[in-house]
Amino acid sequence: MWRRLRYDDSTAALALLSAERGRGLAADEATLGKQDEVLLGEDGGEGGAEGEVVGRTYWWQDKYRPRKPRYFNRVKTGWDWNMYNRTHYDHDNPPPKTVQGYKFNVFYPDLIDKTKAPTFFMERCDNPEFTIIRFHAGPPYEDVAFKILNKEWEKSHKRGFKCLFERGILSLYFNFKRARYRR
């Protein structure tokens, strides 16, 4: 059975979202939107169509109803100046841009159990070039998932890795390892 997906419309979530959007995008970033989101079923697997659950209404239902968290995600893109691209391209005619990393900001202002930090899981996808990253926080939030490139991450803080849950925002920033080409 599928549930209709609802987003968190609380004032705290909207304030966090507008503050993050106000920062804007850097020159090497793009946004991940609804077209990149993966629908999840009740069992946590990938889903297809949406349905609706019919039930009773309670006075506390709005605050504790299951809903999807707000998110503001970015894709870091840039040029890979490897030996092949240096030979065949120049700065006037650059090579195609490639995805170099991601920045995920998922907003959880109304968590019921504030002692447990939200987590993320990596899941396999049909296409081996991609993987699904699923964010799980607990009630009242449903899981949200995105399809990203399946490459190895740079897990060094100096290389831009950040995984932090602070003031109701789960921030996960990572860049991909660069492939070094040798003769």
Name the descriptors.
183 residues; mainly beta; 6-stranded antiparallel beta sheet; 4-stranded antiparallel beta sheet; 13% helix; Cactin_C; Splicing factor Cactin C-terminal domain-containing protein
The percentage helix is: 10-25%
Low-pLDDT runs of 5+ residues are 48-53
Rg over C-alpha atoms, rounded to the nearest angstrom:
19 Å
Mean pLDDT: 79
One letter per element, helices H and strands E, the order comes to: HEEHEHEEEEEEE
**Which structural class fits the helix and strand makeup?**
mainly beta
Taking the sheet with the most strands, its summary is:
6 strands, antiparallel
Please work out how many helical segments DSSP would assign.
3
Cα end-to-end separation: 55 Å
Number of strands: 10
Principal-axes geometry comes out as elongated
Strand content: 25-35%
Protein name: Splicing factor Cactin C-terminal domain-containing protein
Organism: Nannochloropsis gaditana
InterPro entries: Cactin_C
Domain Splicing factor Cactin C-terminal: 60-183
